[in-house]
Design goal:
The chain is an alpha/beta fold and about 290 residues long. It is about 50% helix and about 15% strand. It folds into two domains: about 160 residues, NAD(P)-binding Rossmann-like Domain (Rossmann fold), CATH 3.40.50; about 120 residues, Orthogonal Bundle (N-(1-d-carboxylethyl)-l-norvaline Dehydrogenase, domain 2), CATH 1.10.1040.10. Bound molecules: nicotinamide-adenine-dinucleotide (NAD). The site of nicotinamide-adenine-dinucleotide has 24 residues, from helix 4. Pathway: Amino-acid degradation; L-valine degradation.
Length: about 290
């Protein structure tokens, strides 16, 4: 297939490279010349205009920072320039309203679109082991699956358009909440006189088990290996967690859902990021306790 890939940053760079490895002809575009040069090194054809990159393609994949950019790229540069019938796949993590609005505009102009945000960080993007949560009709999902598989460990049909973004915001809100809870429990154990390693050994096999404790233990030198063992470098940046929490809070507002723990987690990450910790792994909340 001929696939245009727009947004070749930390995530998109590795994803586009995996499409090339799967034998696709990948037309790459990014505003950053460095990102574009890296994509070229991994076998993509580099373009200097979106409108040129999308000409004659079967599918357009986007991996962009936020909803405003996704909207402007599709409305100003993709819709009307890609061939009618081309499949649009937005893998960015964005707000639900924008995801639905852009898909509606694409549909009116004769294109099919899915939202397909991912779980898994840069290592999973490079390794082709992302989990995609896809919103769109059954038939369009099947078309999207063929494009996504070389980049994926799992491609899951979440439901109608927007359902991928709903799954992503709910998953990451839950992740933030159990990460903060795990940090609190580890700090309390230590302050109350229990060796945190012993707490890990007990709770990871008891009802307190969860991914944050069992697989990504946020206390240095305790439990599973994680960025905590490397001064919270690498991993999933607190600023990105805050972005996802804000999307979840906006989504909760639109849906009229009550999310008191999500609101509290958002405030905790806001304070942490405003204090200059946005680049630290999100498990670094442990340091504040
Ligand atoms: P990034 O900032 O590294 O990459 C974004 C790229 O988009 C950059 O190269 C930038 O130059 C490019 N870009 C910006 N505006 C553009 C435009 N108008 N046209 C073309 N290119 C443009 O970000 P990232 O870490 O790759 O994240 C991308 C998306 O994936 C975000 O929505 C993020 O929330 C989501 N995500 C990231 C991770 C992660 O661990 N980094 C994990 C899951 C999901």
């Amino acid at each position: 297939m001929k696939i245009a890939f727009i947004g070749l940053g930390n995530m998109g760079g590795g994803m586009a490279a995996n499409l090339v490895k799967a034998g696709h002809e990948v037309h790459a575009f990014d505003l950053s010349p460095e990102a574009l040069a890296r994509a070229q090194e991994s076998g993509c054809a580099a373009f200097t205009k979106v409108g040129e990159a999308v000409q004659g393609v079967d599918a357009v994949v986007t991996m962009l920072p936020n909803g405003g950019i996704v909207r402007s790229v599709y409305t100003d540069e993709v819709i009307g320039k890609a061939p009618t019938g081309a499949l649009f796949i937005d893998c960015s993590t964005i707000d639900l309203e924008t995801a639905r609005a852009v898909a509606a505009l694409a549909h009116e102009a004769g294109y099919e679109m899915v939202d397909a945000p991912v779980s898994g960080g840069i290592a999973a993007a490079n390794g082709g082991t992302l989990t995609f949560m896809v919103g769109g009709s059954d038939a369009v999902f099947e078309r999207a699956r063929a494009v996504l598989e070389p980049m994926a460990k799992a491609v899951i049909h979440a439901g109608e358009i927007g359902a991928g973004q709903v799954a992503k915001m709910c998953n990451n809100m839950l992740l933030a909440i159990h990460m903060i809870g795990t940090c609190e429990a580890l700090a309390l154990a230590e302050k109350a006189g229990l060796d945190p390693q012993k707490f890990y050994e007990i709770s990871s096999k008891s009802t307190g088990y969860c991914w944050s404790l069992n697989d990504y233990t946020p206390a240095p030198g305790v439990g599973a290996a994680s960025p905590a063992d490397n001064d919270y470098a690498g991993g999933f940046a607190s600023a990105l967690m805050l972005k996802d929490l804000r999307l979840a809070m906006a989504g909760a507002g639109t849906a009229g859902a009550s999310v008191p723990m999500g609101e509290h987690a958002t405030r905790i990450y806001e304070t942490f990021v405003e204090a200059g910790n946005g680049g630290k792994d999100f498990g670094a909340i442990f340091q504040t306790l």
